[in-house]
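Before relying on records like the one below, remember that each one covers exactly one chain. Contacts with other chains, cofactors or solvent are not represented anywhere in the record.
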Amino acid sequence: MTMNEQLTKFRHLNNPIRQQIPIGPNDCFTFFSAVKKESDFPLHCHDDYELSLILDAKGAKRIVGNHVYIIDNVDLVLLGPNVSHTWQTHECKSLITEITIQWPKDLFDDKLLSRAQLCFLRKMLEMSLRGIAYSKDTIQNILPRIHLLNKKSGIDSLLDLISILHDLSVSRNMVTLSDESVLNRTKLKVSSRRLDKAFEFMNNNYNKHITLKDVSTQANMTEESFSRFIRKRSGKTFINSLNEIRIAHASRMLVDTTHFIREISFLCGFNNIANFNRSFKKKKGCTPKEYRMNFLEKVTVLYN
């Protein structure tokens, strides 16, 4: 029996139940954490988004839509509204830690997500309608911040959640799971497609020398037209937009690697360390060295 045939049989016996998510009417999101001997919650779905982190669960079975997979020690999945899902103990022999973050589907409305700076987040949320799994490297990098999220409150917790989701949206090697999309996709406007293509090109080539001509070609526009276009749509110049992408990648390298700061600046496409330090401080409010030290202090507090 193939994997899909097994799932079809499973669904016949276990139709997804609809789970009511206890998100308060005035809350932006909710955070659950539990340690279980067994993962036995039935196949279910709900109207809201969910980011699920599963730890110490080697041998457990993950079911998302029509996709079935035996997971390794850690698993991180983003689920869109109405995607059926469950994790089953299966062959797992250890205590399983489950961390679940859920937020209402209207937390980020269409008008907000249409902004250029959120193009990657919008794409990721669209992909989540099939379920998204992230690589081990991404999980390892994001894990301390997910743990710290439960220690924050108020606007700080929301800003941290948005930051986590943004970094997930630009991470590499994410894969969609189910080949069944629960919602019809809305066709993007031509202008949005052009901007998305330009930002995708910059994100994929941030470590290289990129010119305005390179990016405007991706958008099928002249340099002058694209320069006006990106400023009108994003409120930023081409150079500012490119630097934001480079700084986002540099921020991850500062906390994910032990590379020297000078090395990180060149790996992220900055032509000199002074320009990198100046651009980084303008965006983050601190130097790259301070950013790395602040993160290490947070991790030390978390694990002590």
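The radius of gyration is 21 Å.
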